[in-house]
Amino acid sequence: MKRVLNFVKGRRDERKDRVVNSNICVEITNPLGQKVPSEDEHIIGLQTGYGYDVDLSGKDKSMTKLHKSAWQGNLEKVKLHLKKFDINAVDECNRTPLHLAAAQGHAHVVCFLLNNKAVADINDNDGMTPFLKAVECGVKECVGVLVERGVNISVTDNNGNTALHITAKQGFFNIMSMLLKYGTNCDCANNSGEMALHIAVEQEHRELVELLLQAGAHVNVVDRENRTPLMLAARVG
Fold first, then answer.
1. Is 159-236 in the same CATH topology as 55-155?
2. Is residue 95 scored above 80 in pLDDT?
3. CA distance 130 to 30
4. In CATH, what number does 159-236 get?
5. What mean pLDDT value characterizes the chain?
6. Which of 92, 170, 228, 231 is the most buried (most CB within 10 A)?
7. 3-state helix, strand and coil shares in percent for the chain, rounded to the nearest 5
8. pTM for the whole thing?
9. 198-235 residue pLDDT tens
10. 32 membership: H or E segment, kind and range
11. Do the Cβ atoms of 26 and 108 come closer than 8 Å?
12. What CA–CA distance (Å, rounded) separates 1 from 218?
């Protein structure tokens, strides 16, 4: 424990997700019906390759106009295309319009889709639900909307990673704080036997390590390589 605490007291990781209001489901649009752009963590997610690649050229026939409108955050077109297309239709990657809106940070579209019975627990080909994708892209507002609508916060991707594992890797402080406040299990192991604490230590996200320790994460649990968070803390210094 002392080694982990010393690790936390060392150089702090300055990377945090931006603070946005996760309690507001408002439709902020310009005259074209498109969401007004805002600075948010999903931009970082997309730039580092954690957002989706979407083909808007029309070559991907599984990508409906509803998918495209949700991806672009165009609420008026989403409303229009919902009259023709299934709200839970999936593309070739098993992504629904809700996946795409959540990944892009279009909280107003996420709210609308949920209000119109979009299913929130469909997995894409990587096992990601819209909730997990919003977490991975660092979009706190969309994460908050989905959590408040009662999504399963313990859901895992194909590698057994929970939302807490993902935030530990990405370094999203405020999203991790939110998840812990909602009672996420901080000692859940993924398919490699890693807890979120293993990952946060290995990634040197010191403030996240401190959060997890405060939440009661155990420091002596071994992963499949017989490594504990204590051992990793000693290794990274």
1. yes
2. yes
3. 25
4. 1.25.40.20
5. 84
6. 170
7. 45, 0, 55
8. 0.81
9. 999 999 999 999 999 999 999 999 999 999 999 999 88
10. none
11. yes
12. 9
d(CA 66, CA 75) in angstroms, rounded, equals 10
Distance CA 162, CA 188 (A): 8
Axis-axis angle for helices 140-148, 97-104 (nearest 10):
130
CATH topology of domain 55-155: 1.25.40
Q: Which residues 6+ apart lie within 8 Å of 49 measured at CB?
A: none
- pLDDT over 80 (residue 47): no
Q: What distance in Å separates the CA atoms of residue 139 and residue 178, rounded to the nearest whole number? A: 12
Exposed / middle / buried, residue 25 (Cβ in 10 Å: 0-12, 13-18, 19+): middle
Query: 79 — alpha (psi -120 to 50), left (phi > 0) or beta?
Result: alpha
